[in-house]
Amino acid sequence: MSFYQTSSSSQMMSTGGMNAGAGGYCGVGGSAGGFGQVGGGFGQGDGFGYGGGYGQGAGAGAGFGQGFGQGAGGFGAGGAGGYGGGAAGSGFGGGAGAGYGGGDGYVNNMNEKQTMQNLNDRLASYLDRVRQLEQSNVELEQKIKDFLAKQRGGSSKGEPGKDYSTYFKTIEDLKAKIITASHDNHTVVLQIDNARLAADDFKMKYENELAMRRSVEADTAGLRKIMDDLTLTKTDLESQFEGLTEEMSLLKKNHDEEVKGQQTTTVGDVNVQMNAAPGNDLLKKMNELREQYEAMAEKNRKEAEDQFKSMSESLKKEITAGQQEVTTTKSEISELKKSLQALEIELQSQLTMKRSLEETLAQTEGQYCVKIAHLQNQIIAIEEQLEQIRAEIECQTADYENLLDAKTKLENEIATYRKLLDESSNVKGDSTTTTQKEATTTSTSTSQVPTRK
């Protein structure tokens, strides 16, 4: 946008005189800049002129002037540039107007004043926001230092924390005593477990020995019953053998008596002499009968002896076989009982070990569950602290980005404003030179009018 406009077709001179305006001095102070004063004056002739200007200083300083005039022959506006400078910001400006055609410099002047005021307000609010954020940042850093100092046992302001060094030795001694007591406790518990295992083993051995004793007593009672039966059988056989022996003795005795009686009868007959007819040989027959009877008796005796011997041998064999079978069975039963006892002892040992290991496992699981719960609580607390720190960092990052965006926008606006000021200064310098030349030409032409008359 141009701050100075002229129209060659609308340039008109006033017939009655010349319009002129003089600008006033203006000064500003402060880095934010300020506005100048406006002054005006009247010229000669039928018209009047008005000139105005202001200066602005910001950093290196910049300023320009603006004016407009009005004559009888028409309305015009013109302007003359100014400048400003200084570290604190100062400026002055001046302007002159003539009664010839002009433009919209006054309107542009008011818009630029409003723009400068807006820029000043935004810059002031930006600086206030920066100061507030710096203050909040300092407070937050102080809170963080206080929190860390509390965690370490001190103060962020240099104040020393509580001295717990005197308690460290006591704590170490108590820890050592606790460790020693725990070790002794574990040793006693281990001894109790070993004693319990030994007692269980001895109890199992006692029960096994008692069961074995009862089994042996039952076997002994059975064998005694068998022995009694065998004794009865032996007694019966002995009584039968005695009866047969007595019968055989009785038969032998009877036979001897009969033989003696026959011999006596035969001797008597021989001594008797009878005149009878000759008969059979009775003695021969008697001898034959005796021999037959003796043969039969011997045969019966031998058969009885053979039968007795065979029965005795078979009974002895049966008794021997039974005894061997009983002995073998007893040995097998003893071996099986020993194996069973060993297996039961091993089973009880394994079961006891299993129970002990299960109890140890349960205790270990309980301890580790407590430790894991404690660690989880610590992790949750640390995560909450991290979340708070992250939220604060995100808030600070968002504020920083907002401030950075605002700073960038302000820098861009300031750069644009400086560019506009530079362009305005260049344009106003050119317009001042042109105005001075036209004023000189007008003065020359005015001075020549009376001469012509």
From TrEMBL:
Coiled coil start-end: 109-150, 227-254
SMART domains cross-referenced by the UniProt entry: Filament
Pfam families the record matches: Filament
Assigned GO CC terms: intermediate filament
Origin superkingdom: Eukaryota
Keyword vocabulary terms for this entry: Coiled coil, Intermediate filament, Keratin
UniProt xrefs under InterPro entries: IF_conserved, IF_rod_dom, Keratin_I
BP term (GO), one: intermediate filament organization
All residue ranges annotated as the IF rod domain in the record: 112-428
Family matches, as SUPFAM superfamilies: Intermediate filament protein, coiled coil region
Protein name according to UniProt: Keratin-3, type I cytoskeletal 51 kDa
Organism of derivation: Aquarana catesbeiana
Taxonomic path: Eukaryota, Metazoa, Chordata, Craniata, Vertebrata
